[in-house]
Amino acid sequence: MILSGAWEVCRKDWRLFLRDRTALLLSLALPIFLATIFAAAMGGFGGGGAARVHLLVEDLDQSARSQSLVRGLEANASLRVERALDTRRRIADGKAPAALVIPAGWGASVGSAQQQQLALYRDPGATIEQQILAGALLPALLGSGDEELTRGIVLHGMGELGFSFEQFPGMRSIFDSTWEAISKWADEHAAQDALPGAPQEDFDFASFVPRLVGMRVEDVAGGEDATQKSAMQSHAISGIAVMMLLFGLVAAGGTILEEHEQGTLQRLRLAPGGGSAILPGKFLFTATLGCAQLAILFVFGGLVFSVPVFRDPLPLVVLSLAVVAAATGLGLALAMLAQTRKQLEGFSTLVILVMSALGGSWFPLIATPAWYQKLGHFTLNAWAMDGYQAILWYGKGLGGIWLEVLVLLAIAAGTSAVAARAWKRRFLSTD
Length: 431
Description:
The chain has 18 helices and 5 strands.
């Protein structure tokens, strides 16, 4: 009897569940959408392979040896090489994660005591890209086909490990001495780390490999606090701010549907201004609510995590107003297109989560394939994240975010027009 009764309860709940389109959407469609997005971002969709790191190359040498090196880099499947000028400024402006500069006279100096150093300019906030780049540099350099260059890289690397070049006559002594140097280095660092108050540092593969092959590494983006930690904190605060803003403003816009179901909307149409004042009033309410949300979250990020929100507040305020306008317009448009509050909750959850994943609210778009980045910029999240990163990480002013502001205002105008048209057709058609 108990089993029979339990089965009947189960069948009843399944019938109700299958009738609930919102529950079906969230339980079945949403996981599929999100799994597809994450797989695509990681390069596992459509046979596109992993994302290639954008590397700028500035060849000031223009020798046969430097050209051979550039061709070796271009042949590496992990790199997307672009020959460019003024690469230091471009990295500082966030145009690419790294740039390799080959100085004039480098080719002729290879193998000599006065060998010139290659310069690697980096954006330390591009954490994943620096790891991929470090892994690609060594095989690209060693596989260039230049025996003298390869030998010079190996000798320099042995020197970085503490090996004495005077001991090169025998390969066995080379191995033994290198192993001893590595062991001594590891023991010294272990002893230092064991001291009370000693700073605990992780092995930095992305910095070690360029130094091993004789490159001069310089981090040129991120301002005074150019660390991977500060970059990720800036991205986390702004990413969560945009996503939660969308959720909050969609919910606020949904009060129209709730008031319609309760009959309150009909009474509001009798108030001064009539039905024409309701939608602008809702826009004003949701926009001011969004401004308060962003202000609280950014102040929190500035005080707790030292995110530089107070460094130049004017561009941050201008961008935030544009983000709020776009998010408010989207929230009202979704509310006007939904038939019920429950339908709005299910559909908006799917839309916002997909937009957040595509638009870079969860992870930096620079780590994804080029086609994914282009697709992401069909969302307001991507433009908002571009603007916030430009301000908080790259230190740009109003002149550096004008495109993002214009796009966000265009989104606000378009979605608000959709909301106004749906409002007039749905609620004012009997006027």
